[in-house]
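Researcher: I'd like a candidate sequence for this fold, 151 residues long. If you have to choose between options at a position, lean toward the conservative one.
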């Protein structure tokens, strides 16, 4: 009977590692909401290859990695979110053609859980709680299997 507990624990660990990426991806989707914002008549002057746009909401985590896409209706532009100033919600877009006007569209993530106190903290700890729970279940299974087999 001990072998069944060990085999069960082994498959439990495999299941944990197989399910974890899906679990983590689902948590990321719960934490953020995508927002799309268009900025018309963004102009660059002579020799200017960047432009600033002011977002209506804070970037998630106050970092440029929360910007999903930056597009321009000017086919010569290759827009990229380069810097973000959280105090003014100003996003600097680089990769623009000098001396031109365009419409820039920014798709970015915002905090979806800001209305619920402590929810971000709970969601952040959920993977650790999940792992602890699985290991407790595996340990309990081994303990129960070895206790029954001993008597």
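Model: Candidate sequence:
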């Amino acid at each position: 009977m001990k072998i069944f507990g060990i085999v069960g624990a082994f498959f439990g660990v495999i299941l944990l590692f197989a399910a974890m990426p899906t679990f983590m991806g689902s948590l990321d989707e719960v934490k953020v909401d995508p927002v799309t914002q268009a900025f018309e008549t963004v102009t660059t002057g002579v020799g200017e290859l960047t432009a600033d746009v002011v977002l209506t909401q804070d970037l998630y985590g106050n970092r440029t990695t929360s910007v999903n896409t930056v597009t321009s209706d000017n086919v010569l532009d290759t827009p990229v979110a380069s810097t973000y100033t959280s105090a003014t919600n100003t996003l600097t877009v680089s990769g623009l053609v000098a001396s031109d006007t365009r419409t820039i569209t920014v798709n970015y993530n915002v905090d979806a859980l800001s209305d619920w106190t402590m929810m971000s903290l709970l969601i952040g700890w959920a993977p650790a709680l999940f792992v602890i729970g699985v290991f407790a279940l595996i340990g309990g299974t081994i303990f129960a299997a070895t206790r029954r087999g001993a008597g």
